[in-house]
Amino acid sequence: MATGPRDTVPMRRRREVRTDYHQRLRLLKSGKPRLVARVSNRHVRAQLITPGPGGDETHAAATSEDLTEYGWEAPTGNLPSAYLTGLLAGNRAIEAGVEEAVLDIGLHTATPGNKVFAVQEGAIDAGIEIPHNDSVLAEWPRTRGEHIADYAEQLDEPLYGGEFDATTLPAHFDEVRERLMENNE
Fold first, then answer.
1. What is the pLDDT averaged over residues 61-66?
2. Which of 1, 14, 103, 114 has a CA positioned 20 to 30 A from the CA of residue 147?
3. Rounded CA gap, 7 and 59, in Å?
């Protein structure tokens, strides 16, 4: 006599490859706000979120598009813009009263030196306490974009279609970082 199907269907967001519920539960059990870092090829997003009875509550958020307010002219999907987005989100979190968090990288692979860890490093430099291992953070010259500038110098034509001179990226990064640090004080 058949008793019904023997397999179970995963929850919808797991089927859509959008949520790892086991990882989310571990992060929620920490009792700390989550620094949610999401990256795409064109943009970087960072949010500081706490769970609430009616759903998650966002205390501070920043996207790489917000960097234009501080003079950022370079593309917004690279490692330097990820760091600056984390720094901006960290500044906004400090203003909102958030002092500590845990990193939530979602379904991204935890590869040392990638953009989600650059977001984390920016938030740490803003003053947010996040447990981390320094070995996963990119080297500072790489975070500044020196590897992009070196590559742009080898090319015959402009790297970004003439909109921005990529050979000046490290200096441009330093200028925008300085503006963001001034706003933090």
1. 98
2. 103
3. 40
Q: What is the 3-state secondary structure (H, E, C) of the chain?
A: CCCCCCCCCCCHHHHCCCCCHHHHHHHHHCCCCEEEEEECCCCEEEEEEECCCCCCEEEEEEEHHHHHHHCCCCCCCCHHHHHHHHHHHHHHHHHHCCCECEEECCCCCCCCCCHHHHHHHHHHHHCCECCCCHHHCCCHHHHHCHHHHHHHHHCCCCCCCCCCCHHHHHHHHHHHHHHHHHHHC
Per-residue pLDDT of 136-158, as tens digits, reads 999 999 999 999 999 999 988 88
And the tokens for 121?
């490093």
Q: Read off the pLDDT of residues 95-127 as tens digits, 9 standing for 90 and up.
A: 999 999 999 998 888 999 999 999 999 999 999
Q: Rounded to whole angstroms, how far apart are CA atoms 12 and 16?
A: 6
Between 65-79, 115-129, 159-173, the lowest mean confidence (pLDDT) is in 159-173
**Residue 1 pLDDT greater than 70, yes or no:** no
- C-alpha 4/C-alpha 8 separation (Å) is 11
